[in-house]
Amino acid sequence: MRKIFSLFGVLAFALVLVLVACGEEEGSNGAEEGGESDGDLHKIGILAPEVTHGWVAAVAYHAEQRAEELSDEIEYQIQTSSNAGEMTSQLDDLLTWGADAIVAFPQWEGMEVPIENAVEQGVEVVNFDIVIDVDGVYRVAGDNKDMGVQGAHYIVDKVGESGHVVALEVPSAGSVSTLRMEGFEETIEEIAPSMEISTYATEFTREDGLQDFQDILTSNDHIDAVYSLDDETSVGVIQAIEEAGRDEIQVVTGGGGMQEYFEMMPENDGLWIQSALYSPVMVEDAVDMAIDILDGADVDEDKIIPTTIVDRENYDEFLDEDSPY
């Protein structure tokens, strides 16, 4: 088994670089610290969660990278938070700063009212990934429901129309988990109604994937496939499978775009490891959308990026040695 816990050190270091570049408290860039901003520059605020997951770290990294590339067009601040209350406070700070647009990755419930307040003040808001039920908010995301659809087709293609599938939902992920599960369940009901589905809750971390799946293996004598929503969760799942010596499991799905996970694909001949690509690089589209809106371009409210499936047959096309995730 490869060393699977070393990535967090790299990701933490990458995020430290991001935060240092942006300022530990203010996260300012694009103007001299404490100086006057250039009136011709758009002021863009970026809100992201603190690192609890490699994919989240990569979102912050790519948002900062894109903002820096556009530093001749924008002045920006990046803030990271650990809960909805902290993100709300940071959103207020960005409004006081005079943000023209905010790119928000609101991972928790309770962000509807503060985001609605920003919109009412005339600030353009582009949500990344998460659905927020507020009129006037733009959004960039992958096709979460189609990821579930593709996962169902992949599993049925590999194991047939009957068998036992363990599905790992992540209730704390809100609409992301809901949509991925809906796509999966609806498609299985349509194409393989005899398939037995057992659903368990977990989190988007390899530690939870490992611990939860160890318990699941103890409770289930036979499993044909695992429908996992996330690459990091799946890394833990695969470790649990290998440690238990369970060789009947034929498929483990995932989602995200994790380089370490991609590299595991050709190393497991008896197990089809799949990922529905949901690249953190998409956040760059959200930054670009915010600028287009401020420039007066005609922009659709939702930009949904199609699903790409990665497995051992094409993984090498998606390897990127510069990726932080």
From TrEMBL:
Domain annotation Periplasmic binding protein: ranges: 44-297
Keywords, comma-separated and alphabetical: Signal
Superkingdom of origin: Bacteria
Residues in the signal sequence: none
InterPro entries membership: Peripla_BP_I, SBP_2_dom
Compartment annotation: Cell envelope
Pfam families: Peripla_BP_4 (PF13407)
Main location: other
Family: Belongs to the bacterial solute-binding protein 2 family.
Identification of the protein by name: Substrate-binding domain-containing protein
Organism: Alkalibacillus silvisoli
